Amino acid sequence: MWDQRYGTDEYVYGTEPNEFLREVIAEVIADLPRQGRALCLAEGEGRNAVYLAEQGFEVHAVDASPVGLAKAVRLAAQRGVHIETEVADLDGYRIEPSAWDVIVSVFCHLPAKVRQDLHRQVVQGLRPGGRLILEAYTPAQLALGTGGPPDISLMMTLDELRSELAGLEFEHARECEREVHEGRLHTGRGAVVQLVAIRR
């Protein structure tokens, strides 16, 4: 499915970073070390990984689609930065412990059991002072129909995330609606959960 979706010259989610990620890096956690290590989960065509590399981070982008990650590498080259990529299914993926200054999860929608296991690893994967930056669709997105999976079991709520990410301190956490204009497949009003969480 993903290779087919990404198998076009078009960047279907755009080439600019997720708006929430950009805001967080610029305003909320400007104290993060710009030479730090960043892990981008379900990174697709690379828009967020390339943005972080442009900010000075050493970026490792993971996705199940080699087609998407090839486009990510091309985008990085066009922007004059370097990213490392890894083709991997997040079901069973192992995050290096205590290794990451930033972990980014943007519209990374997985079956609940897979997500819960991954989020436990996120907690352990962050260095002390490291942050998780996450934005995802909530179940309310199904009624809006402006992007995301058509399956409520793949959506997230803030209450679920508080449980799954036990061990992190939430610095910013909310469910809201916002205008999402990130490529052709995320266009219109979206119901999202947004959070920034730190490992103390």
Write a brief caption for the model.
With 200 residues, the chain is an alpha/beta fold.
Major sheet: 7 strands, mixed
Per DSSP E runs of 2 or more residues, the count of β-strands stands at 7
Strand content: 25-35%
Any idea what the CATH architecture is? 3-Layer(aba) Sandwich
Write the CATH fold name.
Rossmann fold
Q: Helix tally?
A: 7
Specify the helix fraction band.
25-40%
Assign the CATH superfamily. Vaccinia Virus protein VP39
Order of helices and strands: HHEHEHEEHEHHEE
Mean pLDDT: 95
* Content-based structural category: alpha/beta
Distance between the termini: 38 Å
Organism: Thioalkalivibrio paradoxus ARh 1
Protein name: SAM-dependent methyltransferase
Domain Methyltransferase: 39-130
Keywords: Methyltransferase, Transferase
Question: Could you explain how this protein is built, in words?
Answer:
By secondary structure, the protein is an alpha/beta fold. The chain has one domain: 3-Layer(aba) Sandwich (Rossmann fold). About 30% of the residues lie in helices and about 30% in strands. The protein contains seven helices and seven strands; from the N terminus they run H-H-E-H-E-H-E-E-H-E-H-H-E-E. The protein has helices at about 1-5, 20-30, 45-55, 65-80, 110-125, 140-145, 160-165, and strands at about 35-40, 60-65, 85, 100-105, 125-135, 170-180, 185-200. It has a seven-stranded mixed beta sheet with strand order 3-2-1-4-5-7-6. Helix 3 runs parallel beside helix 4 (about 65-80). This is SAM-dependent methyltransferase. GO terms for molecular function: methyltransferase activity. Keywords: Methyltransferase, Transferase. It holds the Pfam family Methyltransf_25. InterPro entries: Methyltransf_25 (IPR041698), SAM-dependent_MTases_sf (IPR029063).
